[in-house]
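Tutorial, part two.
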Amino acid sequence: MGRGVIFDVDGTLVDSNRAHAESWAETLTKFGHAVSADEVQPLIGMGGDKLLPKLTGVDIESDRGKKYAEYRTQLFFREYLPHLRAFPGVRKLAERLRDDGVVLVTATSASEEELEKLLSVAGIKELLTDTTSADDAENSKPDPDIVHAAIRRSGLRSAELIMIGDTPYDVEAATRAGVRIIAVRSGGWDDRSLAGSTAIYSDVEGLLTGYEISPIFKG
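Running the prediction step on this input gives:
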């Protein structure tokens, strides 16, 4: 029986949730929507297909929505990405999992282009078996599409996988896909918000510290 881990990226591997919130708020304000980063923050973890209409009523597939999304992406790359850092323990956890023969894949609401840059920040790209991004899913989290895509890429059954994520949207998406999930608080959510997860840790470093008694190791 194989073992696999599905990594969320933003807020789990990379300390980027606030940067996403601020880049969306800056973008929407530029285009005439009075939206603050604090209003955006609780929606980070969803994809833009859900976040944008919730905040503005604008469909991301509309001409206006595409203009907003492109501006936001380039702003994020230019002004925010250079300042991002991986959370402590990310590389060491990924190496430990790889050395234990665990299949490693991603399931993120980020685009493929954004994922490539975030994985460079995380410093684990070459340790991954495969990746999935928003480009591989029709609907973003909390819909389970991206987790289903990660299951397929892993080559394993859902029962052989466990996800690591930081938002209630990760918990819902994994649960709906039949995958257990370990939650981390590093994205800013509290334990009540992360209810339904198999276990909750402060961050990936905390998970690494307790690795041998974690649901990953014990199965």
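The chain has two domains: 4-15+85-218, 17-83. In part three we will examine how such features are distributed along the chain.
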